[in-house]
Amino acid sequence: MKEIHTEIEIEATPERVWALLTDFAAYPEWNPFIVSISGEAREGARLEAELRPPGTRGFKFRPVILAATPARELRWLGRLGFRGIFDGEHVFTIEPIAERRVRFVQREKFTGLLVPFLAHVLDDKTRRGFEEMNRWLKKRAEDHFDIADDSMMTDQNRERCPRCGEGRLRRWAELSEEEREVARRLPASADYSSGERRSLHRWCANCWYEATEGASHDV
Question: Which residues have a Cβ under 8 Å from the Cβ of 161 and sit 6 or more positions away?
Fold first, then answer.
């Protein structure tokens, strides 16, 4: 058995970090280690993922989620080949340590026949992959801290839609998957990259007005 343990402190709420961690569709925009992943963040779900540790061509695997506790823990079990060859239990833990500050822990326990032969790769490239993902998650969470925790915002602080006056302007991380499908088809998709829209734009799900700093698009 072998275990890798990494951690980093992030200036954001647990809810904000969880929202980014489970927004699998956005991983290609920021995650240099888990470059793609699809599926639902729920216990028992099977994911389709591609990992690319630094200096490697990467590999694909299909882990099963063992636990998905919102704003607390995401845990899955993946393996290469048959059980007992090379198994990895990957755990992401979000630990509150102060108001709007958390410790994000990413660790994995490896077991199986191949582990002793791959120990040097795990200690080097895999560990560096964990650390790079941690740093980019921290950057993304802190860069968008203004939407960290919707439950802590008052009605007076929520920005209302300037067109309909009823809906609240929300960022990508705050939209449901159904709402994101609508947003993807709005006219702004022809003028801005998907990364720019997800990072900077806001939407009113009531009338589908789309706004960003210094620009706006009506349906």
Answer: 167, 168, 169, 204, 206, 207, 209
The torsion angle over the Cα atoms of residues 80, 57, 31 and 183, rounded to 10 degrees, is: -90
pLDDT by residue (tens digit) across 60-75?
889 999 999 999 999 9
Burial class (CB in 10 A: 0-12, 13-18, 19+), 55: exposed
Cα separation, 86 vs 206, in Å, equals 49
- Edge to edge, the sheet with strand 202-203 lists 202-203, 210-212, 215-217
Residues in a beta bridge with 203: 170, 210
Question: Identity (one letter) of the amino acid at 89?
Answer: E
**102 CB-near residues (< 8 Å, 6+ apart):** 9, 10, 12, 13, 14, 17, 94, 95, 96
Q: Dump the DSSP string for 158-204.
A: SPBPTTTSSSBPB-GGGS-HHHHHHHHTSGGGGTS-HHHHHHH-EE-
Least confident of 93-102, 146-155, 181-190: 146-155
Where is pLDDT greater, at 98 or 167? Answer: 98
DSSP structure string for 56-70: S--EEE--EEEEEET
* Stated length of the chain: 219
Residue 213 binned pLDDT confidence (cut-offs 50, 70, 90): low
Digit-coded pLDDT (tens) for 8-41: 999 999 999 999 999 999 998 889 999 999 999 9
